[in-house]
Amino acid sequence: MARRKLVAGNWKMNKTPSEAVALIEELKPLVKSDDVDVVFCVPAIDIPAAVEAVKGTNIAIGGENMYFEDKGAYTGEVSADMLLDAGAKYVIIGHSERREYFAETDITVNKKVLKAFEKGLRPIICCGESLEQREQGITIDWIRQQIKIAFLNVTADQAKRAVIAYEPIWAIGTGKTATSDQAEEVCGAIRACIRELYGEAVADQIIIQYGGSVNAGNAAELFAKSDIDGGLVGGASLKADFGKIVNYK
Ligand code: 13P
After folding, report:
1. What average pLDDT does range 231-238 have in this prediction?
2. Is the pTM of this model over 0.90?
3. Which protein residue has the closest C-alpha to ligand 1 atom 1?
4. Is residue 167 annotated as part of the catalytic site, yes or no?
5. What is the bridge-based pairing of β-strands 5-10 and 230-233?
């Protein structure tokens, strides 16, 4: 089955609301595409302005994180309903920076994934190994464990709407991209894991992205791989380069 490519920007902690609008105005004409889906995942406080700014375009807006409870005494957190009501359609869950700096675990990732699906947000679920794990030769085992826990109690109907982003930690923000063969090997293993859990139809539909120093120069080679359905892009999503990544062909 031919899957549509999905290219998402992860703005991380960059851009105020007014800066977000200015960047979207700059990128709008550059990210037009008939065959690639485009998402900008922006800081929560930027979402209302970003949703307004992308009206009438092919760009969808996503959050970068959410909490797994519906509401209540969780100072500083953002709920799925808040994201949805503001107009977000996607949410990044379990980014390695959240795991490293904000103590997220595979268990909290699973809770957030379940809540996102329950509410109708499309989760972009992140996984990835450290350099040490790669050197120890345990990359595939590690990723399979992350995926299996992230998808605990997720139904097949939900799973086929999931997006998985494979982001080797050593490639994030380092300028050191995984080779297309390294990225394809792990993305293929993730699809095989989904096949074991949910069968062929879900494995065929699920979107698996690569992330980690994707740029205008390497996107075409990475996205040409059969198990890589697009990218989750950090630094280069804040520049005109992002248009070249979306229109990589
Ligand atoms: P860079 O593209 O800046 O390496 O970041 C990747 C990333 O973390 C996207 O989520």
Report:
1. 98
2. yes
3. 234
4. yes
5. parallel
